[in-house]
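A quick aside before the break. I want you to see a complete sequence-to-structure record at least once, exactly as it would be stored in a machine-readable document. Don't worry about memorizing anything.
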Amino acid sequence: SVSSIVPESCLLIVVGLLVGGLIKGVGEKPPILKSDIFFLFLLPPIILDAGYFLPLRPFTENLGTILIFAVVGTLWNAFFLGGLMYAVCQLGGPGLNHIGLLANLLFGSIISAVDPVAVLAVFEEIHINELLHILVFGESLLNDAVTVVLYHLFEEFASFEQVTILDIILGFLSFFVVSLGGVLVGVIYGVIAAFTSRFTSHIRVIEPLFVFLYSYMAYLSAELFHLSGIMALIAAGVVMRPYVEANISHKSHTTIKYFLKMWSSVSETLIFIFLGVSTVAGHHYWNWTFVISTLFFCLIARVLGVLVLTWFINKFRIVKLTPKDQFIIAYGGLRGAIAFSLGYLLDYKHFGMRDMFLTAIITVIFFTVFVQGMTIRPLVDLLAVKKKQETKRSINEEIHTQFLDHLLTGIEDICGHYGHHHWKDKLNRFNKKYVKKCLIAGERSKEPQLIAFYHKMEMKQAIELVESGGIGKIPSAVSTVSIQNINPQTLPLERVLPALSKDKEEEIRKILRTNLQKTRQRLRSYNRHTLVADPYEEAWNQMLLRRQKARQLEQKMNNYLTVPAHKVDSPTMSRARIGSDPLAYEPKEDSENLPIITIDPASPQSPESVDLMSEEPKGCSGLPPSPEEDEEGLVMRVKEPSSPGTDDVFTPGNGDSPSNQRMLRCLSDPGPRPEPEEGEPFIPKGQ
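That is the input. The structure line, written in tokens, reads:
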């Protein structure tokens, strides 16, 4: 019940305080979290776990925003806080006057960086949405380069008698060397790890060892040359993961996943416990003015930095950061054990007020972890900030994601705008054409991304099915192949197939992959200036225009029809009307040459050679009636058969005039047609 209100990191610090107080009460000296132990053994597992399982798509899509917060925001915090603390020291009385500008700037660079360990501990418990999580966590990972550069820079400047302009320029250039150098070291070790995993198919047991070994070597190599070890670990994890997972077995993948989670959890627990113990055991020098000013200016610098940078970033973002998002980003700037360890590394020779710096750092850490960490969950609920939705990825989602990526890449190519979709597609093609062939063993290097994702989902669902014990209820998403792999059934003796050799089986698989899995082939490049015109397009346009004109003319003629059409009589009414006045329905004397139609009133039928479109009363065809036709009444003419090859839809016939179309409203329903006899077409001619 307590852990639902108080974050786990706060409880661990309290445990550390109790353990430290107990050790000190017994008369022993409590152990202190030494910086070497922290940076060499406790920090790397947490960063490797974060880098290896980093959500790459949201990270790359928001990389510009993350870099602005990590680089510009950290520089702003360091110099703003250092400058204001220097002013406080000059006005704070005799106890603070001797602290110079460089010492305050160094203190500002230590306390300004957001801590990844504290952010992970708090943000994973409140389940914030993916965008805010990746912005704050990505900032905490990438600001390590700025912190390392500023820390070593001001530490070196403190030993100089005079700082020149050249030293400042070299210090500015060292930022690019530290950050890009750390990334380069990580990429090199990531490629080596992926290449090594190609040849571990016969020794599956040691596959997880290579992931841990090369990642740790990347971190140590970067720290050896004073580069950013955190960025080297992140780069190594991101680069090696897709290739290593394609080469190693499923058991090795499970081992890597759970061992990294366990290792990072143990390190996180030890860090917060030792932080509490070190608070009791360390030497402290409390100065109200310095500590309270540090805490106040940390909050002010964070809020101002987020507001100003977000105002600038929103000018270029499609998905804007709302005021609620800005508040969570500013409120989530937690400090942690990295700041404490950097402060513990300071030398008494150059920084005599190290104890006061450590006291202020611990105060800021406790305030951010306890106050901000405990209140961020109710604030998220109060502001109704969107939370993370736990949804399983599906094949449908993967297909639509790839479709939209290809679509946006094509739009950028047509527009001539080379955005990040264009370069991402170029990188994917280069990866598929060259890198995969070198780093992935066997035929899996040619396997399409969608097929690989399907195999991964199928394996995951099959394992979940076995663990849940629901083998009797097979979901539709799991194929029968995976079920057969889980519970292999012995075939009857008469159906046993002859065993295939390994070479023959591999040849069959190669043929199937080559011919059945080409889901995405390189199409010929297109250009809007070289498109070939469709020869049938003009003819179709002409036919559509003629049909549109005919409809418009019909609507105009219907507007002139003011007399409502007669209601169609039922067969019973028709029989009653003919029985009451049979003379009105007898043929005229002058109409001997016309075909006589016999109609049964109960079921009126018409010969199939007569069509309603040819029935016209005199005077309705647009021509004046002749004297011979004046007394003939209703005449039913025989429709001429249409010539072969004519278009019944677009070719206007004799009965397609607007007046003939209007006659349909004046005619009664001829009733149902007779059932087709043998040899007759089902649809009569002329329909």
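Two observations worth writing down. The chain has 24 helices and two strands. The two ends are 78 Å apart (CA to CA). We'll return to this after the break.
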